[in-house]
Amino acid sequence: MAEITTVASAKEGILTNGQKSDNQSLKRFIAIAAAAAVLVFFHFICPVPEGLSRTAMSAVGILLCCIILWVTEAFPFMVTVVLIYVLLPITGVLPFATTKLDGGGAIQSVFNQSSLLVPIYCLFIFAVTAAIMSTPIPYRIASFALKWANGSSKKIVIGLMMATGVFSMFIADLAASAIFVGISLSIVKANGGLPMKSGLGKALMIGIPAAAVIGGIGTPLGNSANMLSINMVEMAMNTRITFLGWCIVNIPLALAVTFVSSLWITKVFKLESITPEAISVVKAKLVGLEKLTTKEVKLIIWYVIAFGLMIASTWVPQINSVLIALIFCVIASIAGGLGVVTTFIPLDPITLIGYDKGYVSMAEWLKKAWAPTIILLVLSAIWIPLACGFAFSI
User: Fold this and answer.
1) Rounded to an integer, what distance in angstroms lies between the CA atom of residue 88 and that of residue 84?
2) Helix (H) or strand (E) holding 106
3) For 193-214, what is each residue's pLDDT tens digit?
4) What share of the chain is helix, strand, coil (3-state, %, to 5)?
5) If you count DSSP H runs as helices and E runs as strands, how many of each does the chain have, helices first?
6) Is the peptide bond before 76 cis (omega within 30 degrees of 0)?
7) Last residue of a domain, one of 46, 66, 96
8) Were 89 and a residue from 96, 214, 268, 342 both cysteine, which residue would form a disulfide, CB within 3.0 to 4.6 Å?
9) What's the total number of domains in the chain?
10) Which domain holds residue 62?
11) Is this model's pTM higher than 0.85 or not?
12) DSSP bridge partners of 155
C-alpha cells in the first residue's frame, strides 16, 4: 500500500512539474507574441505624428518590444540585448555599416553610436568582473603580493594597491575596490587592527579605492568613461584613438601614479607590524587550489582572445571592438560559457567602500586622501603630451 502511495505521489510530482513547464512555455510564447505585435504595430501600422518619421516610430517599437522581453524574461537578458543590434538596422533606424552622405557627413553604424557603444563595453566589463569574482584569481594575486611583501607592512600596502590598480584596468573599478578592500579588511582584522586606530587599516581603506580609480584609466575597458571619451574625441577632432594607443599612454601612467600614491600612503600612516596569522587568512582561501581551476582556464582563454582582438583593431580597422565585446558577452552568458553576465549588478561609489568600514574618520580622510588625485594630475600633465606622439603614430 505504501509503495502504491509513493508511486502515486511521484506521478503527481511529475505532472505538477510538467504543468509548470507548460505554463512557463505558454507565458513565454504570449510575451514574445506581444512584443512582436508591438514592434509590427509601430513599424508598419502606427500613424506617424507630424514632424516625425517612420523610423522614429520603429525605434519606439523596438524600445517597447525589448522592455516587454526584459520584464517577462521571455528571452535571456543578453539575447534581448543582441536583438536590439539586429532590429535597429533591419528596421532602418541605424545602418549596419557607416554610411556616407552626399553633403560629406556620415551616419555611424549601429556599432559605432556613442549612445550604444558605452552600454556594450559596460556589459563586457561586468561580464569579466562577475567571472573573476566567482574564481580564486583575486586571492591568488593577493597571495603573490603577500609573498613579495615578506611580512613588511609597507610592502603589503604597496603590493595590494598595485594589484588593485592592475585589476582595475580590466574589470569595473567598483568591483576591484570591493574585492581588495574585502581581502585587506580580513588581513587587518586577523592582525588585531581596530577601527580608527589601525594605521594599516587606514592606509588600506584609503589606498585600495584610490588605486582602483587610478587603475581604471589604464585600458579603454577599465572604465566606461574611457570609451565615451574616446568616442567624443574621435567625433570632435576627426582623429582615431586606437585601443593599443590608449593602453600605451595610460597603462604606464596608471602604474606610476598608483606606485607613487602607495609610497605617499605608507609615509603618512604609522603601520603596525604584520603577524603570521594575518597572512594565513589569504593562504587559507587557496587551500586545495594550487592548480588553476577549469573555470579560471576558460576565463583566461576567453579574455586573452577578446583583448587580443581588440588590440588587433589597431592595425585592422575592420575589426570592430564594440562588436567583439558584444560577441564575447554572448559567449560568456550561454550554457558552457562563463555563465555570469546576468548575475552581476554594479553599484557606486568606489571610495565609500573603504570609508564605510569605519577605519578612517572623515577629517583624516580629507587631510590625507587628496594626494593620489594631485599625483595623477601632475604626472598626466607631464607624461601624456610626451607619450601621445609615439602611441598614436603606430
Assistant:
1) 6
2) strand 106-107
3) 888 889 999 999 999 999 999 9
4) 70, 0, 25
5) 16, 2
6) no
7) 96
8) 96
9) 2
10) 26-96
11) no
12) none
